[in-house]
Amino acid sequence: MVGKRSVGDHAFDIVNVLFLTAASFLFLFPVWFVAVSSLSSPAAVASGDVALWPKGFTWQAYELVLKDSRIWEAYANTLFYVGAGTLLNLIMTTLGAYPLSRRQLFGGSAIMAMIVFTMFFSGGLIPSYLNIRDLGLYNTRWVLIVPAAVSAFNLIVLRTFFQTIPESLIESAKIDGAQDIRVLWSVVLPLSKPGLAVMLLFYAVAHWNSWFSAMVYLQDRSLYPLQLVLREILIHAQTSELTANVPQQDVTQVSATIRYATIMIATLPILLLYPFLQKHFVKGVMIGALKE
Amino acid sequence: MNNVAGEKQADRSFFRIWKQARANRYLYLMLIPVVGYFLIFSYKPMYGAIIAFKDFNPYAGINGSDWVGLKHFRQFFESFYFGRLLRNTILLSVYSLAVIFPASIILALLLNEVRNKWFKSVVQTLSYLPYFISLIVICGMIVNFSGPDGILSKLLVSLGIIDAPVDFLSLSSWYRTIHVGSSLWQYVGWNSIIYLAALSGISPSLYEAAVMDGANRRHQLIHITLPGIKNTIVILLILNIGSLMDSNWEKILLLYSPSTYETADVISTYVYRRGVQEANYSFSAAIGLFNSIINFSLLVAANFWSRRLTSNSLW
């Protein structure tokens, strides 16, 4: 890393930079290709002329997708699941992580072990499925929120964050007569904003991406989150509702660009926020890594 | 005498714990919802897994159903699908592990050698990007790219690797390649973060001293860099082995079809079809329990061997 560099070192550096440049291109290309295809004419996409730049630029696919009420309804549902779900996540995770971060708590390590164990062993899909049905959560909005109220991994990350707060601060607040709940609210939480930001992101993205629970536990289409509607359009290629007014001979070609536009509409919020958020994510992973 | 003193001490320590617990009563109060959550949503289903040893009858409930011993396990082990499911589950995971695990370490090592901070952060940012795209969208892209008029067919035809456009997802011979290849794209950058964190923790003075002693970059890699991230590598390997039976089955559920069951159908997807779709609750609970137990045993075994061989372990 330091000192004089030989010819071999220079050669390595050049190859390394070239390799990483090529890798970066590969990381970006699929997303870029989808973006470019979604803005191209359906005929150009079908003939394979589109690669790096849009051909026959058109917003047609976006217009067709945005006319679909399924997408809007599902978008609204997802916003609810992300908002309400993440709020509950933050409350529950804080309530768990703070007491367990206090080293003098009798029984704390036993409770911690009980929580960690669930990361490595589960009763399986079917017992969980029957449990959810027994609890009356089946086909309700709450089924996407309550059974996902705490993630053991995130609880460990936040607990690690709380443990970095000096014990003396907490003790002195207690000597001043503050109870634990007050200490948490006015000493610990204000000092833990970066940790809470990481939690907010982890949970919000998990809710945004979640689809399996919705597929298994929801029957009403009006409750579907965005990802389930995307599954119909992208994986099962159910675009007939979108192409109702498209001439018959163009339907196949148009439904391809519709799928690309749908991907963009569903991913754009993440792509736009991504540059600002990724640093926090990386921080979260690193805190988790310390604990492991 | 001794006995009395012992009792007194026990008394005193019990009293101390009681006093502490009383002082911490609000902390215990805070824990109630979280402990309740794990009891209801994790431990209750673990108890519910006993239906694997019963013939579950929805009207009688879990406790009221009749015991049948190992009937469902035996049925599964003797079934035509058992060998295929076990093979697919293990192969998909092992292939993924064999490709993605070393690739993440290599990417981190290469990034670590980059001196230009700007270039490094651009490459890193792009490498995490796929991780943030939802699984459904990733699979949607795979479906579109690998169809008969998708970009993959066009590329391979123009390179002369295949003669005519192919619907890759309908061919069981291509499933593993597509599955592992797309997972590599999605996870390699993200997985490298943890190694980059470990690499940044290595003290620069070690490298300086090595250079003084005439070490070149290869020496530094072997004697400083790799030993510096060895612990991280071992721990992540244990964790990966502990989830070997999961094989990213949500992705399989989105990409497979009856024509690719031969290579794509794994234990978890089979549990989903037989249990959730066909309502064979006890039979699929047995398969799921089998899967969980193997998974957990693998973790315990990996942890045990790692502690003996490298003195690194999760617990």
Automatic annotation (TrEMBL), chain A:
The chain crosses the membrane at residues 12-35, 79-98, 110-130, 142-162, 183-206, 258-277. SUPFAM superfamilies: MetI-like. GO terms for cellular component: plasma membrane. Keywords: Cell membrane, Membrane, Transmembrane, Transmembrane helix, Transport. PROSITE patterns: ABC_TM1 (PS50928). It is found in: Cell membrane. It comes from the Bacteria. One of its GO terms (biological process) is transmembrane transport. Residues 75-277 form the ABC transmembrane type-1 domain. It is a multi-pass membrane protein. Belongs to the binding-protein-dependent transport system permease family. PANTHER family: ABC TRANSPORTER PERMEASE PROTEIN MG189-RELATED-RELATED (PTHR43744), POLYGALACTURONAN_RHAMNOGALACTURONAN TRANSPORT SYSTEM PERMEASE PROTEIN YTCP (PTHR43744:SF9). This is Carbohydrate ABC transporter permease.
UniProtKB/TrEMBL annotation, chain B:
Residues 86-302 form the ABC transmembrane type-1 domain. Keywords: Cell membrane, Membrane, Transmembrane, Transmembrane helix, Transport. Belongs to the binding-protein-dependent transport system permease family. The chain crosses the membrane at residues 26-43, 90-111, 123-143, 187-207, 228-245, 281-305. It comes from Cohnella rhizosphaerae. The keyword Transmembrane helix applies. The keyword Cell membrane applies. It comes from the Bacteria. This is ABC transporter permease subunit. One of its GO terms (biological process) is transmembrane transport. Pfam families: BPD_transp_1. GO terms for cellular component: plasma membrane.
